[in-house]
């Protein structure tokens, strides 16, 4: 059904719908974007992560993830990036809109599992006041 729909509206229009219906997460890519968040944003930190938050004047969030070589080799760095990205993706609806978020992994993030990274990210988002739970049950809400 969807394939027939995409054929009938054309490839360019299908790509537009695909990218603008938030199937693709927006991200910070350019060095200037990261510098802007570092210089103009506020920072929040815990044991595993540091979160910088800055408004972007748009209706969507952009996420940038930075993991330095101090954290570990490329396999470990990429694993930490995937964990952060996936945790953000699952909770994206709870985040306020119009923000640039830069997440920096600390050395202790190399040993962290999926749940620990998730709790760290949500802790920082709540600390920054940019996350609303929307009634979902999380591991740290039982405290």
Distance between the termini: 46 Å
**How would you write the strand order of the largest sheet?**
1-2-4-3
* CATH second-level architecture: 2-Layer Sandwich
**Share of helical residues:** 40-55%
Q: Which structural class best describes the helix and strand composition?
A: alpha+beta
Give a verbal description of the structure.
The protein is of the alpha+beta class. The relative contact order is 0.17. The longest helix has 18 residues, at 74-91. It has five helices and four strands, in the order H-H-H-E-E-E-H-E-H. The radius of gyration is 17 Å and the shape is globular. A four-stranded mixed beta sheet has the order 1-2-4-3, with helices on both faces. The chain has a single domain, classed as Ribosomal Protein S5, domain 2 (2-Layer Sandwich).
What's a concise summary of this model?
The protein has 143 residues and is an alpha+beta fold. Helix content is 43%, strand content 17%.
List keywords for this structure.
5 helices, 143 residues, 4 strands, Ribosomal Protein S5, domain 2, single chain, disordered N terminus, alpha+beta
Question: What's the layout of helices and strands?
Answer:
Elements: H1 2-9, H2 11-20, H3 31-40, E1 42-45, E2 49-55, E3 62-67, H4 74-91, E4 99-105, H5 114-128
Parallel strand pairs: 3-4
Antiparallel strand pairs: 1-2, 2-4
Helix pairs in contact: 4-5
